[in-house]
Amino acid sequence: MSGVALVRKPGPRISEGIVTHIEREPVDHERARRQHDAYAAALGVHGWRVVHVPPADHLPDAPFVEDVVVVCGQVAVLTRPGAPRRRPESADVATAVHRLGMKAVKIVEPGTLDGGDVLQVGKTLYVGRSDRTNDEGIAQLAALLPEREVVPVELRGVLHLKSAVTALPDGTLIGLSGHVDLPGLLEPEEESGAHVVPLGGDRVLMAASAPRTAALLKRRGLSVTSVDISEFEKLEGCVTCLSVLMPE
Fold it and tell me: Could you give all domains of the chain from N- to C-terminal order, each with its CATH number?
């Protein structure tokens, strides 16, 4: 067992999810549910114990569970999302992390922080300054996690930091240099190829919409599992958004 994967099924109002940097497209709720089931199953196949936060049918963005909690070791930082309508998502997630026995701390007003803006690479936390994450939120995160180095990152034209860059198992950053200035970026072959979930060892999870990047990573010696998340991509979602991994 690799650890716990926290997920939350999409509700029937998912098509009303927030979009910021892309044109709105119709979202098929039933297809989204099937894709989410397959995503969770892929985590399970790789040894992650999947824990479902109770569905929140009245909260369209609730399946993007990553945004409401940042987990570092045994500490769960409950965020204060930058979009006010997303803040009610936190209550059930807080209950879930408490039941898992984690220490929970909070970002409080006037700070805002979305988990999608937090990229962990070893002991370093890269945190995007975005429309959803402000300087006060970044400062509070640094104070709550004093053993980590918090590095603010400026963004251009993307929703979250992890919309532009993630990290491979060896710590190599893979991302889109047009949206973020970080040294040593490995450029993906497709935009969605910038989104990688390390599953342990040499294994990674990616979107099926990035086959050329998957081939690139396989040539680098990684074991790649691809999943179709096309309905979530219509809402600026990516593979990182749909789970919070808590390694044991």
Answer: 3-15+27-247 (3.75.10.10)
Q: Is residue 160 annotated as a catalytic residue, yes or no?
A: yes
29 is catalytic: no
CA–chain centroid gap for 218, Å, is: 22
Give, for 120, the enclosing helix (H) or strand (E).
strand 118-121
Catalytic residue among 36, 46, 195, 241: 241
Nearest to 246 by CA among 115, 86, 106: 115
Q: How far is the C-alpha of 94 from the C-alpha of 125, rounded, in Å?
A: 21
- pLDDT tens for each residue of 174-204: 999 999 999 999 999 999 999 999 999 999 9
Cβ-proximal residues to 30 (8 Å cutoff; 6+ apart), any chain: none
Give CA–CA dist 107/129, Å, rounded: 15
pTM of the model: 0.97
Catalytic residue (one of 160, 179, 195, 238):
160
**SS3 label, residue 87:** helix
Q: What is the mean pLDDT of each run of 10 residues along the chain (248 residues)?
A: 91 96 94 98 98 96 98 96 98 96 97 98 97 98 98 96 98 97 96 97 98 98 98 97 94
